[in-house]
Amino acid sequence: MGVSVRRAIESDRDVLRRLWEEFSAGGPPPPWVEDAARKAWRDIDDSVDQGLAFLFENGGQAVGFAFGLERSRRVVELTDVYVRPEVRKTGVATALIRAFVAAARDHGADVMTVTTGVRNEAARALYEGIGFRAESLNLVAKIEALERGLERMEGPRSHGSIHVQTDDLSAVERGVREFVPRLPGRSRGSVIVPPRNGWTSVYDELCDREPEMRRRLARELSSRMGAVVFALGIEEGVLVRYLLFDRGQVVDEYLSVPEHRGPLPPGDVIGLAANARVLARLTGADPGRIREAAPTARSPSELPPAADLVAGLADAIGLEGGRHGYEAALERPNAVKISRL
């Protein structure tokens, strides 16, 4: 006996089911696909009835299948193709699809669809190689991830401030004017507020949108001026982060919910708690007040609102203007305002 492709008939249903079980044994179906086996049995039965199921036989032994369904008068869907590992890359899949395409034509269809996983590179290469093109994209997410995303979208947006331990307003302004235009993302403007309690404050539109840019600007100002710099802000509407720099080096970092974006090694979780001694030594704040103002938790719901945490930290360190970001800083009458529109 040689090799051949033939249309599956009523008596082949069990063979198709056994091959499908081999096909599905490669891994469990994704969590959004329920009752995959029951659906497959129904599709097999319907495809046999419609004459849209095919077997590839080698020496009388079925080694692959292709089946699908008529979705409308003009559209046929190729739902499943499987070839046993030992005969892959020998033209079996192409032969099965060729037979299926001919059957689709006989049904009067002029459009054929197929669905495959984004990471199934072999299947995508095969389908694209014979002429399929991407028409739509199915997006999948866990409910928990969507809830976090909606919380970010609907909650207050990110904002923050940078505070340089200096009275030299002109030096801070020069640093902001020179460095901010180099940051990716195009800042619409910056505000520098004259010294209050020994701190000159910086606010920037891009740094509100992209907290990583706040980190970069704070590091640059600290390095350029050889100064202590404290960056404080709200991220994603629910997280509070501060960064303390000394001469361009991070000497302390706090994040209110260290594992909000995913699990971290225990050492990293500990490292994202406030170091009250370091902060007190460099800012003159009371260590006890810092510990009280900088709690951590496993979820934002276990903490006070982010705005309250920021206010508490600003008060503990003696920062005026530590509670808001760029938009509110624009209202300061004595501030240096840099527009980049």
Uncertain segments are: none
Radius of gyration: 31 Å
Please report which band the strand proportion falls in: under 5%, 5-15%, 15-25%, 25-35%, 35-45% or over 45%.
Answer: 15-25%
Mean pLDDT: 92
Helix content percent band:
25-40%
Global outline: elongated
Give the number of domains.
2
How many strands? 12
Q: What is the H/E order?
A: EHHEEEHEHHEHEEHHEEEHHHHHE
Sheet of most strands: 7 strands, antiparallel
**Number of helices, counting only DSSP H or I runs of 4 residues or more:** 13
The N- to C-terminal Cα distance equals: 77 Å
**In what order do the strands lie side by side in the largest sheet?**
11-10-9-6-8-7-12
By secondary-structure content and strand pairing, the structural class works out as: alpha+beta
Provide structural commentary.
This protein is an alpha+beta fold and 341 residues long. 38% of the residues lie in helices and 24% in strands. It contains 13 helices and 12 strands. It has helices at residues 13-24, 36-50, 92-106, 121-129, 143-154, 169-179, 205-209, 211-225, 266-271, 276-283, 287-293, 306-317, 326-329; strands spanning 3-7, 53-58, 61-70, 75-83, 111-114, 159-164, 189-196, 199-204, 228-235, 239-246, 249-255, 336-339. Strands 11-10-9-6-8-7-12 form a 7-stranded antiparallel β-sheet, with helices on both faces. Strands 1-2-3-4-5 form a 5-stranded mixed β-sheet, with helices on both faces. A hairpin with a 3-residue loop joins strand 9 (228-235) and strand 10. The mean pLDDT is 92.
